[in-house]
Amino acid sequence: MTHPMPLHGRRRELRAIEVMLDRARGGHGGALTVAGDAGVGRTALLEAAVRAAGPAFRTIGTTGVPGETGVPYAGLHRLLRPLAAETAQLPPAHRDALGTIMEGAPSAERFVLSTAVCELLSLAARNGPVLCWADDVQWLDRGSLEALAFAARRVQGEPVAVLFATRDDREDADPGGLAGIARLRLGPLGEEASRRVLRDALDAAGGLAGGGDGDLTEEIVDLACGRPLAIRQLAAALTSGQLSGAAPPPRALPPGSSLRALCHRRRLRLPAGARRLVLMAVAEEWLGAATMARAARVDGIGAADLDAARESGLLRFEGDGVAVRDQLVRSSLWADATREERQDAHALLADVLVQDWQRPRRLWHLAAVAGEPDDRLAAELAGAAAASQRAGRYADSWRVWQRAATLTVDHGVRTDRYLAAAGDAWAGGRSRRARAMLRQVRPPTCDGTAAARAALLRGQIEVAAGSPATAVPVLRDAAERLAGSDADAALDALMWASEAADASGDTHGYLEIADRAASLPPAGGARRRLMLAHLGGMAAMVRGRHREAAHRLGTAVRLGADVADPAARVWAALAAFALGDGPRTRALAAEAVASARRLGNAPIESYALLVAGRCEALLGHPPAPIAACHDGLRLARATRLHGHAAEQLATLALTAAFNGDADAAAAHLEPLTGAADRRGLTRAAAFGSWAPACLDLAADRPADAAARLRLPGGCGLAHLPARLFAVPHLVEALVRAGDHDRAADAYARFRGWTDGIGAASAASGTGPAPGRDALSRRCRALLAGCDADAEEHFTEALRLHEAAGAVFDLARTELLFGHRLRRGRRPRAAREHLRAALRIFERYGAVPWSAQARAELRAAGETVAPPPPLAPPPAPERGVGTGAARGPGAAAARGADGFGELTAQQAHIARMVAEGATNREIAARLLLSPRTIDHHLRNVFTRLGIRSRVELARLIR
């Protein structure tokens, strides 16, 4: 084995190996098979196991070699060479059996030989534990594999650990000779781990610039599909132009890549019909049964070809459909195909894609065959793309726009079509493709307006998928260019710039953006008035002009009902949240999510889910898993919206911390930390930093919580709104730690905000904010020097919590109230509140908070029953979507009627079906195949006991 680079993203697998090694140290052996695709890191994991074993273990091993697969006992011969001394100590029959192998004339009976290997490992372990490994088991000769597996299944009573590593291109593949041995599937690396592998590879090449972030990193990580070997091979082949950004990123593995060569060899070994089938799948992403049947009639591709393609490991079969295994295989096969083979694949697909809904794809393949610029064909393609765009079928439209652009002669029209391709790729959740299209729209090939529109889209992508601090100047520049010709587009640019400034914690920049928006022409429809009111209201709130803020934000909320645009509804929901209007926040957020889903716009849906989840978490509702966060995290990861994914992780970490669930909070914080630091996601980092302080409070460590949240200038979070929202926790921590003066200073700032906005809201008729008022009252109760004043404020806080539906905040206040009453020598009154707190905490599985409530009850003189076994928390009484079937919390709200039995994926598909989406539309949205959607939908029907989409729609609505 060679010395490997650092191992990233394999904590679970390393832990499994460490457990096996620990058992071997204690005299209890075990065996494990590590299986995975070529290049996924099996050998690196074996090397890590050897390092983990250290000098305390004796390590022996062997490796399968392709040229020796047919040589009897070749692998065992390599393993036995270091064990000559132990072999000499074996009984004669066993010694002779192994001796014939070493002499090159194996003749022993299989059972005798296998028992000899078993006894040899036992002898080797007499002076200490042994680690025996076998790499590339798929190439071991059959006799060696059988003997080693025989021994591995019998080492439980010996200090011997046996590790096998085998290539397995199918997750359901039969382990063959390794049957009965525990199997660990080594999947692809996650995104963050892939980035670290890339940075290591570039550092090893001399610290070349360009390996940290940006389009190049996105392209390599996406293309490598989580295989570290692919990442290193791509990194090693990068040119200086690619590293500087002057040349486009690689589109396939380099020609000398072993992984690319493996794909090529596998395709060449296939029959001619199977080779054509594979290239059809490469060119068309997914082939349904009907398409393959037509191909069989047109081109003679038969069942034998299907079977051969299935065995090759190049394709993924899903029911009656087929697709290429992954993007790495796709790009490698296409790069090595000849021009004639590609043309034949396009021509065959143009012949077999005959359904009306397949027309855009058929035209796309016809255009690929044409090759040369052709304005007539380009116009036909553009018409098909526009139709797909209007129908929200962005997975089709962006590709057709792109093909139309490549066939267009006129530079201006070509630029417009590239822009349309980029916009539709972005709307369909393909940020990498959108960036690639935008690289075609650069001066001097485009005019100023086109360049400004490209900058607007580039900035939007950067906000959600890149670095918001980078997005701010791009969007502000786009706004300046557009202000004279398209005020609506300029305002769009400023709205997204304000979101980027807020995400990066740039309060000064946010205010400048709001001021620039105010200088735009005021005329316009409801959408423009809403955006101007939102920006102006938020800026006024930051500046402490509460009456102006309440008026403007109230206007934005009222206009939210008059606009259909989902992004505008998100901004209206944020305005309602700033005013503390929980019901309208939830309603507007739910409408925004549903609207974005109907339109098929993945980035806006992700943004709406992000805002819905964050607002729901901060409205004080039970900290059960928030459907919006889980849906949003899944969508953000699938569409590579890295900023949105980090925001969802921060919210999930915070809600888990509210509940005192340290394990869940840590699981969300771990991937958040690196992403937030690297991308400058100050808002996400602030909410993530708030979470450990909440865990300290739940664990009854108020001084630690105060230390995390307190800085000389106030609450120690780098994002202004997060600082304000966290003040009630800071006040509680400081009071419980005995620091009343600092607590009073912190509360003064919070009270100025809540009282100012509350009074202005009441004066302008925008409605009360009972949730915020309740927290303010709780702070006043904690700071009250007189028990009577404290009781008055606590009582009013409880009433306001109930009015707001903030159940978990209610329980926290009941606990604090009970504590104050007990210390005031009123145990009977304290017990009433402490019991109420305990009931809520137990209902939602808040174990640390339940423990605090029980301790207080015991101190108040009550005998407390032991805690009940944990049960899943009930669905929230209120939440985003519980009042509207299409909201992101609808799945949670349906627990009583069986909807809660679905997995998160099934629930998401069920909601889209209820909204009228077809299987193919859902497949395009979720980046899955229609066959997979059909499979999930059948499971939904089975679990819910229904038979049709109509019944499902009725159930959800």
UniProtKB/TrEMBL annotation:
Signal peptide: none annotated. PANTHER family: TESTICULAR SOLUBLE ADENYLYL CYCLASE, TRANSCRIPTIONAL ACTIVATOR DOMAIN. It comes from the Bacteria. SUPFAM superfamilies: C-terminal effector domain of the bipartite response regulators (SSF46894), P-loop containing nucleoside triphosphate hydrolases (SSF52540). Residues 860-895 are annotated as: Disordered. Keywords: ATP-binding, Nucleotide-binding. Gene3D superfamilies: Winged helix-like DNA-binding domain superfamily/Winged helix DNA-binding domain. InterPro entries: AAA_16, P-loop_NTPase, Sig_transdc_resp-reg_C-effctor, Tscrpt_reg_LuxR_C, WH-like_DNA-bd_sf. It comes from Actinomadura chokoriensis. Residues 865-876 have a biased composition (Pro residues). Pfam families: AAA_16, GerE. Transmembrane segments: none annotated. Residues 895-957 form the HTH luxR-type domain. This is LuxR family transcriptional regulator.
